[in-house]
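Incident log, structure service

09:12 report received: a user says their structure output differs between two submissions of the same chain.
09:20 pulled the input from the user's history:
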Amino acid sequence: MDCEVLVAPDMALRGAKMLAALIEAAPAAGVRCFVSQSPQGKAKVLMSYGLGHPIRRAWTLAHVKKGGRLIGWDLGYWDRDVSGKAHMRLTIDDDHPHRWIGPMPPERWDSAGIPLREDANPNGPILLCGMGKKQRDLRGYRVHGWELAALKRTRKAYPGREIIYRPKRPEMGLPGCRTSKGLIHEALRGTSLVVCAHSNVAVDACIAGIPVVCEDGAAYALYRDNPAPTREQRLEFLRSLAWWQWNATEAVEAWTFIRQCLSA
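09:34 re-ran on a clean worker, output below:
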């Protein structure tokens, strides 16, 4: 298999390290890599880190539109900041892998040793999670454009329920809402619902046992029309999602998984 890999000086260090590991491991996995800073059309398969990058995004979207295949990487769903792991999340042909989620062998999730929790309080507040600047720009939202619309919908659906706002980055709050600070697992504890566009917080909420309303992202595979899945459904989702994140030490295995998906 041939793959063109986009590598640029402005890539985050962890992303660049992951791509470097994949390039190095490629021959052992039966893959021939062509490295470039901008697409040269050298392969049907294109790989990049950070699909939201304003310049590379245009290239990757154009590549898929022409019938090419896309391998995308970004920071992982869990263990992304753990020394020696630094997991990176994988997607194919889209921003998120929710279309690929289905029953998978359990060993990757089970070996992570992350216990499922039941931190929800049905009578607790709702946590509304904001959108980051990069996604706002990509989707054409002004500051708080998505958040204010989501706040209106949530108040209509859950009248009288307290709504706590958790911004992606420090910024002004939303009208009538307390602002959440601190660690995400602390913010989730005791809430009744998480509302987000496509944030990784939906995966954190899945682990914590908090119902979720989301519009996109990997967790959309679980929460689409089902904001309160069973514990068994959550576990099945996480066992599948674990195959969509890898670290640099698993580059050969990641290539094997990717090749299987591309040939399916």
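09:41 both user submissions now match this output. Likely a transient worker issue. Closing.
09:42 reviewer note: The longest strand covers residues 69-75. Residues 29 and 253 are 8 Å apart (CA to CA).
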